[in-house]
UniProtKB/TrEMBL annotation:
Record Pfam families: Plavaka
Annotated region (Disordered), positions in chain: 24-46, 120-140, 755-787, 1178-1232
Biased composition (Polar residues): 31-40
Biased composition (Low complexity): 126-136
Compositionally biased tracts (Acidic residues): 1181-1193, 1201-1232
Protein name: Uncharacterized protein
Highest taxon above the source species: Eukaryota
């Protein structure tokens, strides 16, 4: 029993008292007991059943692995058979086999128990072919003429999804019927396959080529085990490899030849260039002691810009990249049908199904054609990322790259490094050290920090003026004709849709002041208005005060530049401030406005939100830092306890939740994914650490943050989920204001020791050189006197990152889900640049990195030509993975089945096992439960996990081959996620059962599963049952009554059951997690049981409720089934926010969850939002919509949120909608 647990000490060790206080409600929850009858009755049984499901389409298209593969669904897809319900009581002191009446002989099962629903397993399916006839004509007024618009609509698929195209699409890449018309095989129709000698290009022979391919394209070549395995597999084991042919002495010249390789004889790309960028430096007025006379401005050339043409990259990708076959050239609007007669709901999942690309496409189709052009017109959606990054852990080497992606490519491919979807466009140089020498030489005194900042902005936009050259402008306005791999010539128009960057770079792109009065790059809201996040006034301001690139803005910039460049005013002079300060503008001509403004391009719209920097590294990080400050104020021991709890949180999934092995309180070198993991696990960890008057408020805030985060990061949104997100944003704003006013200010907080040390280091760096040298001589430690004086530190809402959260709903509608625009893609690309930097000589590394990038791209082209010459399918050259990913977490087995267990296991004699475990109470009824489960499935009857269905004499009918069961170390469960992706969870048993005995497996973190519930207790209804998997077995069985029959393999899971605590309701209404606990073995026979693996939905994540402590009386004796050292945690928190799919299973409304039954607890009603769980679940011709059931949970939906908003003023959560003042804010506020 854990020390210091008030709850555990209060409960004590008395089993009867504990049974009455907590376990009895759990037992009542699980078994629905009725103890009012005097005659003992049979326990209420949970019966699992299986029936074949006849699906309308036998063939489905599996898209989980980004490949189109035909799969045939059969009887593995099942539905649940309804059964009558029966209630009974439990006999407390009889042996299990004595529960069977003496006169029971091969009769029907005693009683009828509740079933555990086996949900149908629908495989992912692409769109269906459009109907041959278009929809009725819709006339829309064009700009110059009347255009007749004929919409083309695809029939709904099994998920009720359908698409609406503006015009008949010439190709739908994910339509299985048309996949053969847009595959790499069509490259063979354009040109005959090259000979191997020609395909090898500059390489003298095949052996030299494959060796160079490994050397130049494999990550960590020569330095990692994965790269060495790739060398063995792709080079040495190649049957055509001849070591004597490898010409290692000429590799330097060979690399230069590959860099200049041109694969396309019809289009010569200019490739990488090196240029100088000229900027105009304002010199200001003369000073005493300086030059007496000098010009108002001088031109300074910044060398070292590496760049290439955007149009050339587009040509190269379309003509040579096999991934172009997956590009969506025709955007569409996607809808999901509602079964209750309500209008269809819009579905948004990628940029080519968003409003931004649809609007651009419709504008293009309505515009006049180029004179004499008969070719199809399509849009290529360009997405840009840029961010400066340090290339090494030590030193100042940095790179400022500009990356480009194509929005036409599915986001699943854009996020995969082996698809090579990212294209480097330029590496922006920094102001050289000679810049100050240039300024001093011109005017006699150096430039101050304000002038340097201005020149950096000028440099950035000068680079973009060079990139947006005449060739790009021509492609933007008139399009370019390109031959596509399907043999069709199309006119391609380039459109910049999004530009992703962190806030410091956003203000440079938007040419606004960093943290100015109007600090947002998308609107003109003032800083003091930020705290009204989620209110109607805030929403109105965002809509009415959007930034627009109009003539008025341009004239202000032009006027300010006249003051600076002609009248010699300082860049921050009074005249300039009076002109630009009101809208926080800066005196720099925006390159996007200059080059594209004439076409109506508003560059402010392309600056999209970024959840990585704005929430995970912004709002949430700031709250976490302040919570740690409060814990330091409460007592140093609380931070130690917090760190201990975080380290005990188990990992989950394929890096979904990673093991936390560091001290969270130090917040040392954490990435965004670490802060995301901390948020998802924070609720049970922080519970009970704060003073009682603060704990409930902090728990509520943490729940709201995790709920908002899981909803905002959905990869497929519907109108319903966006309405939910809008309401959650309102609730989040209320909670943040309440936290700032009533929680953060209740405790006087100071800097943490780490924050104090960081501040002192910054002071040393900004101080004199002598102080910095003294610190260096003293090592990394700082004087105690400096660290001891910790400054007071509070929490504030006045940051841009808080303000940005209010734009997420509108941005998702405009650009697609947040993973489309997240800077995470750019941050991931930085890793490749850092690896390339390691291969340079650290001098002039920008040029060497550009060379490596060009060599890798050309090597892929040569590899494709070699594949064509050898008749192999084209691939994108997957990169080697680490062994842990390959061996343990790689997807194994067919994805069209419910689960996969290995064909062979470790044989264990059942009799010997039971003899070895005779003192283990977990195995007390093992044989009877196992035989009863096997017999039920052999006879095709529904089985029960909480009761025996057969007489003891019936068990002799079970022929268990050699009296052996076969133990397995893992089982993989397949499921279709909410966003229609095929996913897999790996479950490993908590016990390792072998011929030598039973041992802890060490995989207790990955052994919990969830099953569909069939509860009908009204308001106490919970959607799922939970169980810890103790063992994974298969056995070979047959019936003795059919001795001629072959043995049949039967897969079985041995589990320990957990029950939901009815005294603590979880969910959105209560703003807390559900809580479960182990069923005690005194509740015979419900503590352990056997289930069919096909009944498992997926794995789930449980975290101990640490503050409740542990106990050792749930099992009647010594057992290997205890969690830790002969004890179990009192309760576990069910982590509904562990991933997006899990959150949608509790929230309801997932498009891919067509198997999700009934109304969900958190489904939102009201505001015109349809009941998504009822609307999207499968249609049944004989099943009416149960409106009563839909209304039963209205308390926990949108109505409850709105009710809480109405009464929020009582506890300080203001929802002020007063008129907003137009006065300016103080510019001295803390930086974001």
């Amino acid at each position: 029993m854990s020390v210091g647990s008030a709850s555990a000490n209060r409960l004590g060790s008395s089993v009867p008292r504990l049974y009455q206080s907590k376990v009895q409600p759990l037992k009542r929850r699980l078994f629905s007991q009725n103890q009012t009858t005097s005659e003992p009755q049979r326990p209420r049984k949970r019966i699992f059943t299986r029936m074949p499901l006849t699906t309308p389409d036998a063939t489905r298209t599996l898209t989980a692995t980004h490949m189109n593969e035909d799969l045939t669904s059969d009887s593995d897809i099942v539905i649940a058979e309804p059964h009558l319900h029966h209630y009974g009581s439990t006999l407390e002191h009889e042996e299990m086999h004595d529960l069977i009446p003496a006169d029971y002989n091969n009769q029907a099962p005693i009683g009828r128990g509740r079933i555990a629903l086996r949900l149908p397993d629908h495989l992912p399916e692409g769109p269906r072919a459009p109907s041959r006839s278009p929809s009725p004509e819709i006339r829309r007024p064009g700009q110059r003429r009347l255009v007749i618009v004929r919409k083309w609509v695809t029939p709904p698929n099994c998920f009720r999804l359908y698409r609406e195209y503006y015009r008949k699409p010439s190709i739908i890449p994910d339509l299985k019927a048309d996949l053969t018309s847009f595959t790499s095989s069509h490259l063979l129709q354009l040109l005959p396959p090259p000979t191997l000698e020609k395909a090898l290009g500059p390489f003298p022979n095949y052996s030299t080529f494959i060796h160079a391919r490994w050397l130049w394209t494999t990550e960590g070549a020569g330095n990692s085990d994965a790269a060495n395995r790739a060398l063995l597999k792709t080079v040495y084991k190649d049957k055509e490899f001849v070591s004597a042919d490898v010409m290692t002495k000429s590799f330097k010249r060979l690399k230069k030849a590959v860099e200049n390789y041109q694969s396309d004889p019809f289009y010569k790309s200019d490739g990488w260039k090196e240029s100088s960028v000229a900027i105009s430096v304002p010199l200001g007025k003369p000073r005493p002691g300086g030059q007496p006379e000098f010009p108002p401005a001088a031109e300074f050339a910044v060398p070292g810009l590496r760049h290439r043409s955007i149009v050339d990259v587009v040509h190269r990708v379309i003509r040579t990249d096999p991934n172009v076959r997956d590009f969506h050239l025709h955007p569409f609007r996607q809808y999901v049908q509602n079964q209750d007669g309500k209008p269809p709901s819009r579905v948004i999942d990628d940029i080519y199904s968003s409003d931004a690309m649809m609007d651009e496409y419709e504008k293009l189709q309505r515009s006049p054609r180029e004179p004499g052009c008969i070719f199809e017109r399509v849009i290529f959606a360009l997405q840009f990322w840029s961010d400066a990054t340090l290339l090494a852990n030590f030193g100042s080497a940095k790179l400022w790259p500009i990356y480009m992606y194509f929005g036409n490519q599915p986001k699943w491919a854009r996020s995969r490094s082996d698809k090579h979807a990212c294209h480097d466009i330029a590496y922006i140089p920094s102001l050289p050290a000679a810049f100050q020498d240039f300024v001093v030489g011109q005017r006699g005194f150096p430039a101050d920090s304000k002038l340097e900042t201005h020149c950096r902005r000028e440099l950035f936009h000068s680079v973009w003026k060079l990139l947006l050259d005449k060739k790009f402008i021509r492609a933007y306005k008139h399009g370019i004709l390109i031959l596509f791999p399907d043999g069709v010539i199309r006119r391609v128009y380039l459109r910049i849709i999004t530009y992703s960057a962190d806030y410091p770079e956003k203000v440079i792109i938007a040419t606004i002041r960093n943290l100015g009065i109007c600090l947002c790059p998308r609107c003109l809201i003032f800083r003091h208005q930020i705290r009204k996040l989620g209110t109607k006034a805030d929403t109105k301001l965002r809509s009415l005060q959007r930034r627009v690139d109009n003539e008025a803005r341009r004239s202000l910039v032009t006027k300010s530049r006249i003051f600076i460049y002609e009248r010699r005013q300082n860049v921050v002079s009074t005249w300039v401030e009076a002109t630009l300060r009101q809208e926080s503008l800066v005196p720099t001509i925006n390159a996007f406005s200059l080059c594209l403004g004439r076409f109506g391009f508003n560059f402010f719209l392309m600056l999209c939100v970024d959840i990585l920097h704005e929430f995970e590294l912004g709002v949430w990080k700031a709250i976490l830092q302040h919570l740690i400050r409060i814990l330091h104020a409460v007592g140093e021991s609380t931070t130690v306890e917090m760190d201990r709890r975080f380290r005990q949180v188990s990992a989950f999934g394929r890096e979904t939740i990673r093991r936390i092995s560091y001290n969270v309180s130090e917040l040392k070198q954490l990435a965004a994914r670490d802060f995301e993991d901390i948020l998802q696990c924070a609720l049970p960890v922080f519970e009970g650490l704060f003073p009682e008057e603060l704990d409930a408020d902090i728990q509520r805030l943490l729940f709201v943050l995790a709920d908002w985060h899981s909803l905002a990061k959905l990869r497929m949104h519907t109108e319903g989920t966006l309405d939910m997100l809008s309401l959650r944003t309102k609730t989040l704003g209320q909670e943040l204001r309440y936290f700032e006013q009533h929680v953060a200010n209740k405790v006087e907080t100071f800097e943490t020791p780490r924050e104090a040390r960081s501040r002192v280091r910054r002071g040393f760096r900004k101080g004199s050189a002598n102080a910095a040298q003294a610190q260096a001589r003293g090592g990394s430690s700082l004087p105690d006197t400096a660290i001891g004086s910790r400054k007071a530190k509070g929490y504030t809402l006045d940051t841009y990152k808080v303000h940005a959260l209010g734009d997420y709903v509108s941005q998702i509608r405009l650009f697609g889900t947040l993973d489309v625009t997240s800077t995470q893609l750019g941050e991931a690309r930085h890793r490749q640049k850092k690896r390339q930097y390691e291969r340079t000589n650290k001098r002039n590394f920008e040029s060497q990195i550009a060379t490596q990038t060009g060599v890798v791209e050309n090597m892929r082209l040569i590899d494709q030509q070699v594949a064509l010459a050898k008749g192999r399918p084209l691939t994108c050259g997957p990169e080697p993975k680490a062994r842990s990913q390959e061996d343990e977490d790689s997807i194994i087995g067919p994805l069209d089945t419910r689960y996969h267990i290995a064909s062979k296991g470790e044989g264990v004699c059942l009799s010997k096992l039971l003899h070895q475990t005779k003192d283990d109470c977990a195995f007390k009824h093992f044989r009877f439960q196992l035989l009863d489960h096997i017999l039920a499935r052999l006879r095709g009857r529904p089985y029960s996990w909480d009761d025996l269905l057969f007489n003891k004499s019936d068990y002799t009918d079970v022929d268990l081959h050699k009296d052996h069961i076969y133990s397995h170390g893992a089982s993989r469960f397949n499921y279709t996620s909410y966003d229609i992706r095929r996913c897999q969870d790996t479950i490993k048993p908590a016990l390792r059962i072998s011929p030598s005995g039973v041992f802890k497996s060490g995989y207790s973190a990955r052994c919990t599963v969830m099953l569909a519930s069939d509860e009908d207790d009204g308001k106490s209804q919970h959607q799922f049952w939970y169980a810890r998997v103790l063992g994974i077995f298969h056995c070979e069985v047959r019936s003795h009554s059919s001795p001629q029959a072959n043995y049949k393999r039967m897969d079985i899971l041995w589990v320990r059951w957990l029950g939901v605590d009815p005294d603590r309701r979880g969910g959105t209404k209560h703003k807390r997690l559900d809580r479960v606990g182990y069923v005690p073995d005194s509740c015979k026979p419900g503590a352990f049981g056997f289930i069919d693996p096909a009944d498992v939905i997926r794995g789930c994540h449980l975290i101990p409720t640490f503050h409740e402590g542990t106990r050792d009386d749930l099992l009647s004796g010594a057992s290997s089934a205890f969690d830790v050292d002969g004890e179990d945690y009192q309760y576990y928190s069910v982590m509904r926010f562990v991933d997006r799919d899990m959150a949608m299973r509790y929230r309801g409304g997932g498009v891919g969850h067509v198997n999700q039954y009934g109304p969900q607890e958190d489904i939102d009603h009201g505001s015109g939002t349809p009941d998504l769980a009822a609307a999207i679940r499968p249609l049944d011709a004989d099943e009416p919509l149960d409106s009563d059931q839909d209304n039963s949970d209205s308390e926990s939906g949108m109505g409850s949120d709105m009710e809480e908003d109405a009464v929020s003023s009582d506890d300080g959560r203001d929802d002020s909608e007063s008129e907003v003042s137009e006065s300016d804010d103080d510019l001295e506020l803390d930086a974001d």
